[in-house]
User: Fold these one by one.
Assistant:
Number 1:
Amino acid sequence: MQVNKARATQDFIPIKEIRDNVVILKDGSMRAIIMTSSLNFALKSAENQEAIIYQFQTFLNSLDFSAQIYMESRRLDIRPYIALLEERYKVQQGDLLKLQTREYIDFVKRFTDETNIMTKTFFVVVPYASSSFQGKDVLKNKFLLKKGSAEDVKQQMDNFEEKRSQLEQRVSVVVQGLTRCGLRVVQLGTEEIVELFYKIFNPGETEKPLQVNQ
């Protein structure tokens, strides 16, 4: 009789590690994540709309690699704002101001309880997969280098830096292209990437919205 052993969550996630602002997958490929702003496209004039479409088309045609656009839609967590208002309420001096602040806090709570206020965040995932693991390099890694040796560690570091350099070049192309479209962009750091994936794999938890250090 065979007993099915429970598998850890990590077994189903293709991520090996996250470091130096890079997601390293189990197959050795890398991902960088860029967070972008949005545009009020409908409020633009016809000329501006055409210019944005043309610029975005030019950006897409300039790419010689694939990229993924990811949108996260999540209910807005109002708790940090309520906590801020409560602090303001405590330091109010006049009775009228305290009353108005309390009424405003109650109004915000009722409004957010009755209405689903959603916040949307946009990301662009930039990939890089190296094909330099083949041929003599594979044989050298397998037969000549002792795992954990200083030479092996140095080669792994050199290989990582080389691939990350190629990935950063792609990130630069994407950043420039999106900036020309009128978007504000910022590459996520290690902590921001960890927080993003934590929220993705724990959708039931309502937490503070993603904050990016610029």
Number 2:
Amino acid sequence: MAQDGYDINPTQMTATSDVAMPQDPEAESSVLSAMMISQDVLQECLIELEPDDFYIPSNRKIYLAMREMFDRNMAVDTISLADFLKSQGELERVGGRPYLLDLGNNSLALVGWRRHVEMLRRDSTLRRMISAAAQITALAYDAPEDTKEVVAS
């Protein structure tokens, strides 16, 4: 049986070789932009979203940095966020200052951010469902003769 029951990394897994996991990079960027532009949106998104709602690792890191900055009562703006990410050695990994500036200059993100949050949560739920199905499939392939053990886990 697989170690700890699961050797599947759902963030890297695809349903088939041609199909990517459910995701919407534009919606992710839009939500991050809205969070950077509006303190109210930032607070609501920190309540409504989890890091795994962001599929793209760099966007997840930006979200986590914003959350940490908010928790430390630090201002969350393009310059402060860039400085914070730089101090953690993550700035270039997330796309550098140019990507953060693009996010901070997208004022249209405030128009549809609520819908984009719903899209992120929907895609995240679908990824979890795909991951659960893959884990069940892996358990079934590695099942002992007594299937009661598989069903119980």
